[in-house]
């Protein structure tokens, strides 16, 4: 019996109290009030907003990325930040239209070889070998895809099928109640069901419109791109190695076993951040690198001290060739008594000779 129903029965219980003695009436009334309050409190405590913080961080990052992309989308295609933002939003670095993502559930999530894609492959395992041969999506493909993995209900409607908290009206997934995410008892999981190719499609479609599209809105007043990326990275939880996969980072609810984020009590995204294997790196690694390069380009050149700057100016005027050699002092003292002019003019020589003879002894 639900807690609300029990509390509704409280007035009828009071009628039975009337037939008790006065002291017993007071005692019984108090006990029933305490019991009702405890049951309501238990119901509120059991309610949970699954993946709330992870959703908020990723959604804010998508809004900041869209705002930045709208500012620079006119730049050349080879611009690293432009390519990284397009990978973040569209899963490819050659652009796209936001309007296409704001429409109905994209065709990539429709039937793949006659059935819906398995959640384990698209949200939990890296794209490699035969596992990812026919996959149009994989964990880390784009922020848009990862949000879809994070916020679509799982097997048999998890987490809304959890006994106790799941049945509470206050239970949410990514901030949305059960009805907004498709309702019912189905969900997107990794279970093979022969003949049930449409299993969970209603929940996938509802999540795309109730969650994904709301995060594809430009927010110029929200967090900056660097701040939003840092907040998102802060929600990643490093997991223990599993087999050959060493660098694993999880976003969202669920155990990190060998079959992570499958939709069976595992509503999450598992990232594989390593270059040792032959599969794509997560979108956020490229965004990290592009933002770091952009920040280095915007750093001003350090200014020189004015004194050093003046010294450099003075050095420009220093002649590179050595100055002409001056005659030694001895040569100046022993200058010849006659010059070339005296030799050419005998009258001048005669005057000099006469003056020397008339000089007193």
Automatic annotation (TrEMBL):
<keyword id="KW-0325">Glycoprotein</keyword>
<keyword id="KW-0732">Signal</keyword>
<dbReference type="GO" id="GO:0098552">
    <property type="term" value="C:side of membrane"/>
</dbReference>
<feature type="region of interest" description="Disordered">
    <location>
        <begin position="294"/>
        <end position="361"/>
    </location>
</feature>
<feature type="signal peptide">
    <location>
        <begin position="1"/>
        <end position="15"/>
    </location>
</feature>
<feature type="compositionally biased region" description="Pro residues">
    <location>
        <begin position="320"/>
        <end position="330"/>
    </location>
</feature>
<keyword id="KW-1003">Cell membrane</keyword>
<feature type="compositionally biased region" description="Basic and acidic residues">
    <location>
        <begin position="188"/>
        <end position="202"/>
    </location>
</feature>
<dbReference type="Pfam" id="PF13206">
    <property type="entry name" value="VSG_B"/>
</dbReference>
<protein>
    <submittedName>
        <fullName>Variant surface glycoprotein</fullName>
    </submittedName>
</protein>
<keyword id="KW-0472">Membrane</keyword>
<dbReference type="InterPro" id="IPR025932">
    <property type="entry name" value="Trypano_VSG_B_N_dom"/>
</dbReference>
<comment type="function">
    <text>VSG forms a coat on the surface of the parasite. The trypanosome evades the immune response of the host by expressing a series of antigenically distinct VSGs from an estimated 1000 VSG genes.</text>
</comment>
<dbReference type="GO" id="GO:0005886">
    <property type="term" value="C:plasma membrane"/>
</dbReference>
<feature type="domain" description="Trypanosome variant surface glycoprotein B-type N-terminal">
    <location>
        <begin position="73"/>
        <end position="299"/>
    </location>
</feature>
<keyword id="KW-0449">Lipoprotein</keyword>
<keyword id="KW-0336">GPI-anchor</keyword>
<feature type="region of interest" description="Disordered">
    <location>
        <begin position="176"/>
        <end position="204"/>
    </location>
</feature>
<feature type="compositionally biased region" description="Basic and acidic residues">
    <location>
        <begin position="294"/>
        <end position="314"/>
    </location>
</feature>
